[in-house]
Amino acid sequence: MSAILSVRGLEKTFGSVVAARDITLDVPRQQSIGIIGANGAGKTTFVNMITGYLRPSKGSILFEDRDITGLPSRAITRLGIARSFQVAQVFPSLTVDENVAAAVAVARTRASLLMSAITPLASAPATAEAEELMTLFQLGDYRNARAATLPQGVRKLLDIAMALVGAPRVLLLDEPTSGISIEEKFAVMELIMTALASRRTTVLFVEHDMEIVARYAERVLAFHDGTVIADGPPTQALADPTVQTLICGTAPLGVAAGEVLHAQGLRS
Amino acid sequence: MTWRNTLVGALAFAVVASAAVVLPAWLMSLATIALANALVVLGLIILWRAGLVPFGQALFYATGAYTVALLGRFTDLRDAVLFVIAAALLSGILAYLVGLLLARYRDIFFAMLSLAMSMILYGVLVKTETLGSTDGFHVESATFFGSALHGRTAELVLFWFVLAWCALAALVVSVYFRSVAGSLAVPVREREIRLEFLGISVNRLIHLKLIIAGTLAGIGGALAALAVEHVDPTMAYWTTSGGFVFVTILAGAGSIAAAFIGSFLFELVRSVAVDLMPGTWQIILGTVLLLTILFLPGGLGSVVTVGRRRLGIKTP
After folding, report:
1. Which of A72, A116, A264, B78 has the most C-beta neighbours closer than 10 Å?
2. A146: which strand partners?
3. A77 and A168 in contact (C-beta within 8 Å)?
4. Can you tell me the distance from the alpha carbon of A230 to that of B120, in angstroms, rounded to the nearest whole number?
């Protein structure tokens, strides 16, 4: 598999604080990568640099062999890298329908702002794409509910559905299950990963819940002190003694994760 | 629904145009000014929907007005259509230039920066002899399609001329509101970051809104100058901008028609207030604004919606 995303010597400093250092890795197409690490380990800084929210201090980011280092977030999104947020960034006073329609409208505005100022909003292609996403993320029942009134899990799904408008090839999810109850977490994650798999989207997700990581990541990047300390399949990365001490120790493995690792022969 | 709205709007303009024939002179003069000012309010509604309230929209209003006045004074041009087109172009270009900076700011910074810009123009106008200084100067009468008109006919044709520009502006704004870009006002107001991560520049979107609003204000200023036949620096002063914001609150952001009705009511109330209380007429205006905010926070544009809700009629 060829790398869709390549990162070389990435570094970010805020004054004397080094938030990310010497990150080098390749992301193959359609891989599902879990990013783990304690608070302040550099996970979100990494996501922010990839998506253009932060400009790297050093290093380079290549997306489909094109250098995107330091490009503004909107340009990176237009190229095909989308993201969702730890706190869902939806439009609270709009309904679910209107939120998705707005995202589709934005995707159509990307080409020409002037044309979009005279093109009527109500047209068939926009509706078709919105409907596809509504179905994919099972948002139909909430169609007319205002986003502000949605349960946290549904709001997260809406956020991700909106990020997927325009069919990005890479999606970065910042803590997709944070704020969601334990009972709902796996159902929400299952829905997200199934939807992404059906669209063949490469996904990198930041996650504190090791059970989720063990189940849904094909590869794990473990961050500590701004750099990647372990990189490999979950069976290997989560079992790494340093990762166990520095990361899993701060986010204890739950029963489900234990079961997953047990099934994979890592726990007795 | 949208075609029905357009048809109702066209019919309303036709009725007003016909009614003008029987309007008394004072009312026609008041309505002409109100319609010209309503164009500024239309622009403010575009910005307000996106959560932006400029306190310096008089910058473009005065630019439009002075463009007409200066063309009349220093060139042989007299054609009203050319006057207004020139004013629209110049105020649009100015809005583009000012927007390069203004589109980066939000909230109170946006409001105060726009006010600062208009006050710079005010200062320039006051200090420049060629531009009439504090007294301003007379605006030459315009011709309409080659004819110089006088008396009642001139007033009537000018009214229709202003009305035609208003109809055109209402159509353009309604097309914009129903467009892809125009539909993004609430998203701009609520979650800029989501829009940026959906791939567009919010600043550019706001810049476009500023250019449309600035051009509308310029046309409004040009028409007001033709109606009053005089320009002076107060057209750029902050109280003039404040008046436009006042009418926008009165009208509300929900409807295009409300901009015209609101502007007309504002001029009418002000006119009656000045008549009743020459020295303290602002008390009446202030009371009207207070009552609007208390009892009709959505402005006149929300009357229909509120009425339907109270009567239990479902909104189509």
Report:
1. A116
2. A95
3. yes
4. 60
Angle A111-A112-A113 (CA atoms, 0-180°, nearest 5)?
125
CATH code of the region B2-311: 1.10.3470
* B198–A107 CB contact, under 8 Å: yes
Q: What is the pLDDT of residue A256?
A: 45
Are residues B194 and A162, on separate chains, in Cβ contact within 8 Å?
Answer: yes
- Check if A133 contacts B (Cβ < 8 Å): no
A89 touches chain B (CB under 8 A): yes
Q: Where are the domains of chain B?
A: 2-311
Instruction: Tell me whether residues B179 and A118 touch, CB distance under 8 A.
Output: yes
Q: Could you give the CA distance from residue A35 to residue A213 in angstroms, rounded to a whole number?
A: 8
Task: Determine the 3-state secondary structure of A51 from DSSP.
Answer: coil
| d(CA A94, nearest CA chain B) in Å | 8
A105: nearest CB among B184, B193, B197: B184
Nearest of A250, A219, A222, A234 to residue A26 by alpha carbon: A219
- B contacts of A83 (beta carbons < 8 Å): 197
Size of interface A-B (CB pairs under 8 A): 101
> Which DSSP string corresponds to B133-166?
GGG-EEPPPPBBTTB---HHHHHHHHHHHHHHHH
CA B300 to CA B304: how far, in whole Å?
8
Residue written as token pair 């559905």: A161
Residue at A90: amino acid letter: V
* Cβ–Cβ gap A102/B184 under 8 Å: yes
Separation of alpha carbons A80 and A263, rounded Å: 36
Contact status of A107 with chain B (Cβ, < 8 Å): yes
- Residue A162 in contact with residue A195, Cβ under 8 Å? no
How far apart, in Å, do the first and last CA atoms of chain B sit? 8
* pLDDT per residue as tens digits for the range B254-282: 889 999 999 999 999 999 999 888 888 88
Would you call A94 and B183 a contact, using CB atoms and an 8 Å cutoff?
Answer: no
Contacts of B184 in chain A (CB under 8 A): 102, 105-106, 109
Q: What is the H or E stretch that residue A17 is in?
A: strand A17-28
Asked whether the predicted pLDDT for residue B41 surpasses 80, the reply is yes
Q: Do A116 and B181 touch (CB under 8 A)?
A: yes
Q: Show the tokens assigned to B296.
A: 């009709």
Catalogue the E-assigned strands of chain A. Answer: 3-14, 17-28, 32-37, 58-63, 66-67, 81-84, 170-174, 202-206, 219-224, 227-232
- Given a cut of 50, is residue A266 above it in pLDDT? no
Q: What is the pLDDT of residue B313?
A: 67
Residue A93 contacts B, CB cutoff 8 Å: yes
